[in-house]
């Protein structure tokens, strides 16, 4: 599954903003006849924004959706696609900030004039708490992200309407009831509050932002460097934002807290482990399958890493596209950007995706979005006849790490009884073996979502063969006593057979659903449609690779 990378007038109770900045903005390249380039405007804070030419031409494309015509007078309540992400990005005004950056880069006044016109019009039509102002305009994230372009503009526009608007933003950013602690939104709130505090000499705001940021980073990034938001792709965003935060602290004459620097650095290893051999991040949780980290992570020393946050990432080698790779999920119950994917696995071998999650579609409140969060959208075991209990934590109880073979056991009580999955991954002769059981005499059923390129060519006798041209994959199911388990059901489309390889996309894919059984041993063998298999005395041999039917 190849993807395209996309590069993600109120006065404060404590007083308004001072008229003179306490910390002068860093300026570079200021010469006679040229506009000073400011630290507030320069830097990597405009990812995926429309170009200045787009904005001047009156059309902007946001979050990958078709271009929207702004017109001379902007409709600030516009929501042409009824898309929450579009609305938030539109109200962030980052796209407006490109004009100020272009003004600094070219010295052409028309860019600054249009940016000022747009920002002043936005302020006039979006008063906080006013009738007609859309509620989402003043949600925490648009407020945080909007602060940057407004601060950038304030380097060149000293009018009171802009200063007053930034005062409104600061009041909301400083409000503890609105603060998103332990989340990337909290990081953005602190960056924004620090920026306003530094720009206008409000040490109380800068101090508050620094204190909060340290606490939030310690909650959001654990001591191993794992992001706690349950979607690895957000680690790239958080890493980038922490670079901005640390740079801004230094520009403001402040010392960067050691814990922030340490955990930001540790994120690089986590990102490296969560990146598949094809260069894209494992699309777990709200993680788009088109996320390609554009950063230098270095090469971790370990090829297999177990994170207490709830991830196992393993591979045969770094920097080799044909390396085998797998992920296993466990850990704290679903929160933030997580899905109900506990005990789930993904598998990549011989240069391609084999087993995949349904992925991330969007944040739209749709039936399909909620389905992508459910266990049925992941490669997990379910307990027949038992009710699923959302947000249940799971544990890694056993592991065995070898150079060419690793095995793990994870368990939870998400269905009111113990649900246990053992996973063995063999390298060289590639295969993944999975044993699912439940306590109390309950039966289990599992499902396996294959990459959309793989289609079923045969199904019978506990063996399902899928193919993409000459490439074949075989799924075998049997009991630990070696009896074949037949009766696999296949869906492509329908209720279960879907995947979202890119934002807002939905593509039919092949899902194999097992019959119900007290225990299920599943073996996935990439690269062949006729693996040599034998099983006796609790020992399974596949293509010359032998292992216990209990795996661990």
From TrEMBL:
GO MF term (any one): lyase activity
One Pfam family matching this protein: Hepar_II_III_C
InterPro entries named in the record: Chondroitin_lyas (IPR008929), Hepar_II_III_C (IPR012480), Hepar_II_III_N (IPR031680)
Residue ranges occupied by any Heparinase II/III-like C-terminal domain in the UniProt entry: 333-513
Keywords linked to the UniProt accession: Lyase, Periplasm, Signal
UniProt entry tagged with the keyword Magnesium: no
Protein name as it appears in the record: Heparinase II/III N-terminus
Species name: Nonomuraea wenchangensis
Lineage: Bacteria, Bacillati, Actinomycetota, Actinomycetes, Streptosporangiales
